[in-house]
Amino acid sequence: MKIKLDCSKKYINDVTEKFTKAGIQIDDNGVLMIVDNPMHSFRKKEPFDDYKSIIFIESYGNKIHIHQSHEEDPIIINEKLYELEDRYKEHGFVRVNKSQIVNIRFIKDIDPWIGQKYILTMNNKNTIYVNRTYYQNFKLYLNL
User: Which pairing describes strands 54-60 and 75-77: parallel, antiparallel, or unpaired?
Assistant: First the structure.
């Protein structure tokens, strides 16, 4: 049997040795993948395989929270918001403020607000604000 390993450098030698002793061959084309850190595996995927389930992406400090339709808790990764914005803009994602990107497929309602702003209600009932800085870009993206 061939397996693919995706684990931290700290443990790779130990894990490889144990599998080899058990008669299991380590190969990047293995039929089974052993992962010790799912976030590490997530970051390697280009683009994220399940981007269609992403409702919105937001940054908190140096962490990115990815909110998905099928998950109650967000996935937390270490990436730059502008990198994700560039990666997903062709897939229906638009930046709406300094710390959030939304998937337009999950916008339930768009309410105009005072001072060139919008309030978005997402399908998961979260409220997200489009501020003045991103107002025009948002309108152009949605042809409003």
Answer: unpaired
Architecture of domain 51-142: Beta Barrel (2.40)
Place of tokens 């607000």: 113
Check: CB of residue 78 under 8 Å from CB of residue 31: no
Rounded to whole angstroms, how far apart are CA atoms 13 and 115?
58
What is the structure's pLDDT at 51?
Answer: 80
Please give the pLDDT value at position 143: 84
- Ordered by start, the domain boundaries in the chain are 2-36, 51-142
Residues of the chain with confidence (pLDDT) below 70? 1, 5-10, 29-49
Task: Give which of 60, 61, 57, 122 is closest to 93, Cα–Cα.
Answer: 57
Q: What is the DSSP letter of 71?
A: -
Question: ω before 38 within 30° of 0 (cis)?
Answer: no
Check residue 52 and report its DSSP letter: G
Q: How far apart are CA 88 and CA 1, in angstroms?
A: 37
Q: Which secondary-structure segment (H or E) carries 113?
A: strand 107-113
Per-residue confidence (pLDDT) for residue 76, from 0 to 100: 87
